[in-house]
Amino acid sequence: MKEILIRNAHTVITMDDQRRELINSDVKIKGGVIVEIGGDLQVGSAEIINANGCVVTPGLVNTHHHLYQTLTRAVPGGQDALLFGWLQTLYPIWSKFGPEEMRISALVGLAELALSGCTLSSDHLYLFPNGSRLDDTIDAAMEIGIRFHPTRGSMSIGESDGGLPPDGLVEIEADILKDCIRVIDKFHDARDGAMVRVGIAPCSPFSVSRDLMRDAALLARDKGVMLHTHLAENDEDIAYSLEKFGCRPGQYAEDLGWTGDDVWHAHCVKLDGREIDLFAKSRTGVAHCPCSNCRLGSGIAPVRALRDADVKVGLGVDGSASNDAGNIAIEARQTMLLQRVQNGADAMSAREALEIATRGGAQVLGRDDCGQLAIGKRADIAIWDVSGVESAGSWDPAALLLAGPTKVRDLFVEGRQVVRDGQITAIDLPRIIERQNKLASNLATG
């Protein structure tokens, strides 16, 4: 793999252990890793990427997504609904998906993420209609070139058994566990620099049984993979847990083995003080999804309290049917703004929000090899052009989330260029978008 020298950046925001910010500096990449950082590095045989007028950061990390939902943005009937009503509107539409819908929606969603500076994304796929498989989304990620942490989700309790999803979208639990083993054995790579890791992710406490939650945790630890689910998302979620399980979501999770350094939960909007302490002591991670939480009226997650308790927090765009965008840079800004609305203007700085979006997300996903610009770390790098209108007049171009672009100029993953001059390099994106819109139209009229 050729050497690449990112040269003469206005600022390099490293997010390393010292949180250094280097002015007029270079970053050299070789073999998929960062080999040098500093001023006036020797060019040698390296390809030069001119970063004059740019801020360079670690690639952003997305810790929660439902990629298949890019086919169902702004669906009438679900635009103004709370979580449960929104799901009941969309379940019948999603039941019509097949492998092509899954793959195309993933291509579009991952391209949108990459253009927003994301180099590592998780995905939570929990329904598999009409022959769909997790393989469909993994194939899309490999084509785009983004680092991927898909999770094999599931639903097993349908409406007839008191669950929320329709019976046609649930699976037999033995089949779920069997397929979890299949995708882990086929795709999971535990090595540093892995492009694909797989997790196990029953959808939520209101769509799977206690037995499946417990068995999934046992299987994940036997296989050495991470666990993921939704938890404490809104008031309806809390009420369901109290009624059905006689306890709050945090207690439910702990009782079933769903706390620990190998677990991260999405949303966690309604965690109370005891649950925050539980997550801190157990090193359980949180995927904060601010735009989706706002869109669904779920509330403002206690991110300030979580951070102050030393809970691992990353960001998630959530599904594009509940966001309805997939821009992780916008999520970082929204995180900062919501914490200020809730706790005051000094509650969260632009730099702390950027740290959550980079280093924080990598920690949540167990990726010590990513999330920062330091020698020996993976070459996942975002280059932001701050010479444009978004940053015009800014006294501090490194404060990207206050005055800066929300799309990258260039993006590198494992030292390979995924975005060049604002364009995805690996696919014909306009053609994919055309197909995406056709599939969405078919769903709307079918």
CATH topology of the largest domain: TIM Barrel
Quaternary state reads: single chain
| Mean residue pLDDT | 96
| Overall number of strands | 17
**CATH H-level homologous superfamily name of the largest domain:** Metal-dependent hydrolases
Q: What percentage of the residues does DSSP assign to strands (E)?
A: 15-25%
Q: Could you describe the 3D structure shown?
A:
The protein is an alpha/beta fold. The chain folds into two domains: 4-58 and 369-424, Roll (Urease, subunit C, domain 1); 60-364, Metal-dependent hydrolases (TIM Barrel, Alpha-Beta Barrel). Helices cover 35% and strands 20% of the residues. The strands form three sheets. Strands 1, 2, 3, 4, 5, 14, 15, 16 and 17 form a nine-stranded mixed β-sheet that branches. A four-stranded parallel β-sheet has the order 6-7-8-9. Helix 4 links the parallel strand 8 (147-154) and strand 9 (199-202). Helix 2 packs across helix 13 (429-445), helix 4 (173-187) packs parallel to helix 5 (210-223) and helix 7 packs parallel to helix 8. It is globular, with a radius of gyration of 21 Å. The termini are far apart. The model has no long low-confidence stretch (mean pLDDT 96).
